[in-house]
Amino acid sequence: MSCYALIDCNNFFVSCERLFRPDLADKPVAVLSNNDGCIVARSNEIKALGIPMGVPLFKVRDIVKANRAVLFSANFELYGDISQRIVQLLREETPLIEVYSIDENFIDLSELPIRDRNAWAERVRDRILKEIGVPTSVGVAPTKTLAKVASTFAKTHGDGTWVVESDEERQAMLRELPIEDIWGVGWRLAPRLRDRGVSWAAQLTDASDAWLRTQFNVTGMRMVDELRGIPRLPFGDKAEQRKTIMRSRSFGHTVRDYFQLESAVAAFVTQAAARLRAQDSVCDGLTIMLQLASRDRGRKRYISRHVKLPEPTAHTGQLIASSLEGLAALYDVEGAYKKAGVTLTGIVDRSEWQLSLLHQEHDERERGVVLMQSVDTLNRRFGRGTVWHATEAKRHAQWQSKRERQSPRYTTSLTDLPRLHR
DNA sequence: TCTGGGGTCCTAGGACCC
DNA sequence: TCTGGGGTCCTAGGACCC
Questions:
Q1: In this structure, what DSSP letter does residue A249 have?
Q2: Residue A224's pLDDT is what?
Q3: Exposure pattern of A16-34 as b/e (b: 16+ CB <10 Å)?
Q4: What nucleotide is nearest A246 when CA is compared to C1'?
Q5: How far from the centroid of its chain's Cα atoms is residue A30's Cα?
Q6: Residue A291: strand, helix, or coil
């Protein structure tokens, strides 16, 4: 039978900040999103104050102040580095790992010769806590969705671990799981299901497929199967192959100047293209998106334009050229913009696409790919932005987000090393 | 001609997660 | 309680073509 583990880092960004600030161990601590806009990570003390996930900072400013909560701007360089150390540790356990997000890793335990899964889960949890210093919740179950549920039970019902071995245990867990806590049921679906008398996950797995199909699309049906113990989600490398890749950022200030938009778009394309090459793919189109500074009855307004590429590519220069066509078509001198973004679409494996190529064209394209790979290697080794495209023109980069409360890059920059003595 | 069927591409936006 | 972040996937509806 299939068996997956989810290793979920508790309050991850907060845990990373606390690694170098032990004085904050039992204080209310939160981490903000880019541009210091929303709260995206909360210590238990912050959660206890009733501050929800993703809330805009301005809405909770008073309660933050009254409780002397400590706020940090997001420091992704630090979190990314700690995350990589955890992945490395897990790889010592098994190569069958899927890096799901910066703070979540799945492991396929199906084929591993483990006699006692409880003991395994506890040992892994202990290792990450002792060797890296980050507390985790480890859930083990027959599907990825159930492992995710188990990891939340590890927090609420267990001592950091929760293992589902039998079908009785699976059903017992689902009888205690409110539908809104299911991975894939959000604020829209949950009230609708409750209206129809469904409050617990077990009621979903017991429902007839005919009825379920009237409530869910393909994604929802997949989710129910997963809860029933039937794996429907891909695992491993395949799961990391994105069908779309997006990079976007809100500006620190409203932007009107075309050249600043150009430099922002070029920077986003550069990042997205590196991600595209990292999964060894090419794309055949891209969409440029701008968010307008003005609102329509409180709603955000977006405009977008899709550009079809002359041929599939992963070449940053070609992608930037096409993206600027799209930007020029969207741009209005009268416009004021809050945010820009780029989405790469029509993504296919490079090998798949190469099969359709003629021989003589092949060499020339291959040289472009090799050049780009060298750029990626340099930027990986010496830091993002070591080699960059002229259009990114740093002198125009006044669109950068706000980061007013960022902690030092303790682990990735020599100038930011913690000091023991003055 | 405004029409009927079917396919594809684009835009806008919904829904969810962290 | 549904948005002052970022990201992915999905779908409805319109335009356009055959």
A1: E
A2: 94
A3: bbbbebeebeeebbbbbbb
A4: C7
A5: 18
A6: strand
What's the pTM?
Answer: 0.90
pLDDT tens figures, A324-355: 999 999 999 999 999 999 999 999 998 887 76
pLDDT in tens, A386-401: 777 777 765 456 778 7
> What pLDDT, on the 0 to 100 scale, is given for residue A360?
53
CA of A342 to C1' of C3 (A): 22
With CA of A250 and C1' of each nucleotide, the nearest comes out as C5
- The nucleotides of chain B lying under 7 Å from a protein CB are 9-18
* Residue A247 Cα distances to A230, A254, A400, angstroms: 34, 18, 14
One-letter amino acid at A311 equals E
Question: Cβ of A50 < 7 Å from strand B?
Answer: no
Q: Which nucleotides of C are covered by protein (CB under 7 A)?
A: 1-11
Quick check: A185 CB within 7 A of strand B? yes
CB A172 within 8 A of CB A149: no
Residue ranges and CATH numbers for the domains of chain A are 4-9+79-227 (3.30.70.270), 12-75 (3.40.1170.60), 241-399 (3.30.1490.100)
Both tokens assigned to A104 = 């979540």
CA angle A364, A366, A368 (to 5 degrees): 80
Strand-pair category, A4-9 with A104-108: antiparallel
A184 touches strand B (CB under 7 A): yes
User: Of all protein residues, which has its CA closest to the C1' atom of C8?
Assistant: A244
A116-141: string of b/e by CB count within 10 Å (b at 16+)?
Answer: ebeebbbebbebbeeebebbbbbbbb
- Pull the structure tokens for residue A192: 């609708």
